[in-house]
Design brief:
2 domains
């Protein structure tokens, strides 16, 4: 009788833990889509949950290398914090970096209690449900959508209208589908193709680059049947998408127009590529004049200072360069950017050693995006680097199916 009661209590406890962790994971994804405040609160709740669980159940002696890796950003933060230690922007950056250990320890906890494929399925379902909004808007505002894309804009999306980070969210869904096995092949392959088409249709160039990087890995994935034909089919669809989707046509046409309008001596924020090149030029000029290692909170004032110097008749509206290496060099100097680069690339080495191609592909994709964006300065950007990486790293890729 005592054993039965104990077993019931154990099962009830396990069910409660399962529901709480799943609910918190769903709440976090809703925060990603609808509320930065809710996303921040969910990170704090994850931290409390991790501490509470680990006080009762200490980590095993053999720890995952990427758990240590996730803690390193908190150390690297110091390299660019000592210069301006009492500025709010300094600690805003620290809060973003805290996402890494929270994500990895939270996923480690999740997978210890719940099947990893169930967690991945939740991520995929939320991503697909979120796409209803931009797709329905396009269907009901077709002419307006064409005009928007023709002038370099995008469709409205969740995540505070951040179409770049939202497209990266969809790319993370594609990666989880491609490199793992959350569904049977009969259902999984159509969903992979649908996700691919959705990303191409939304026409965000950063997402196209990430997508192209991940597609390079398809020939090496044994878990995908007919992968050679799938690769050929996807390439064919990508080529045909120019003629099928007006969004793709307009995005390519506007990109060419944007490049033609670029003038090094004129800063015009209406042309996204031109503005990026101008801002990166300002950052390079600051570095050449030894105005680097100014601290995280000193990057924006330094950019403002040199922006006013080289474009005196125009107001500089951006505080960061559009390149993650330039940001780290400005903020933490050569030592900081070197250490950060080693840290950023380590998961690629680990993934190759462990034959975790999803980790390799996602790390390469985020690294590539950092060449044209300061993705890892944003709350959304850090989140979309850390969480998909953790979901793939702890859910061992079966490459023998």
């Amino acid at each position: 009788m005592f054993k039965k009661t104990t077993n019931r209590n154990f099962l009830w406890q396990q069910c409660t833990i399962h529901c709480l962790l799943t609910g918190l994971f769903v709440l976090m994804l809703l925060g990603l889509l609808f509320s930065r405040a809710l996303l921040s609160i969910s990170m704090a709740v994850w931290l409390i949950t991790i501490i509470a669980f680990r006080l009762q159940h200490p980590f095993p002696k053999e720890k995952h290398p990427l758990l240590y890796w996730s803690l390193i950003p908190l150390v690297l933060f110091v390299v660019g914090a000592w210069q301006l230690p009492f500025q709010k922007d300094t600690y805003d950056f620290l809060l973003n970096l805290c996402t890494y250990p929270i994500a990895f320890f939270a996923v480690h906890l999740l997978y210890a209690s719940i099947d990893g494929n169930k967690i991945i399925r939740i991520w995929i379902v939320v991503a697909f449900l979120s796409s209803i909004y931009p797709l329905s808007w396009y269907a009901t505002h077709f002419q307006e959508a064409v005009i928007k894309y023709g002038s370099g804009q995008s469709m409205p999306v969740w995540m505070d209208q951040d179409h770049i980070r939202y497209s990266i969210f969809l790319c993370s869904t594609f990666a989880l589908l491609l490199f793992h096995y959350p569904f049977s092949n009969k259902f999984r392959l159509p969903v992979v193709v649908a996700t691919f088409l959705l990303i191409v249709f939304l026409s965000v160039r950063t997402a196209w680059i990430i997508l192209a990087i991940m597609l390079l890995f398809i020939p090496f994935l044994k878990i995908i049947p007919y992968r050679k034909w799938l690769t050929v089919g996807i390439i064919a669809i990508a080529c045909c998408s120019y003629f099928i989707f007006p969004t793709v046509q307009k995005k390519i046409a506007y990109t060419l127009y944007d490049w033609q309008q670029f003038k090094p001596s004129v800063f015009n924020s209406n042309y996204s590529d031109g503005a990026r090149r101008n801002l990166n030029y300002i950052a390079v000029e600051a570095i050449q004049h030894k105005s680097y290692n100014v601290g995280w909170a000193g990057v924006a004032p330094t950019m403002q200072q040199y922006g006013e110097k080289y474009f005196p008749r125009q107001t500089l509206k951006f505080g960061w360069p559009f390149n993650q290496w330039l940001f780290w060099l400005l903020g933490s100097g050569w030592l900081g950017v070197l250490l950060w680069t080693i840290w950023l690339l380590y998961p690629i080495v680990w993934g190759l050693q462990q034959q975790q191609l999803g980790v390799v592909a996602w790390s390469l994709a985020i690294t590539a995006s950092c060449l044209v964006e300061s993705n890892l300065n944003f709350q959304f950007g850090v989140f979309l680097h850390a969480w998909p990486l953790a979901l793939m790293a702890f859910n061992h890729q079966d490459n023998k199916r």
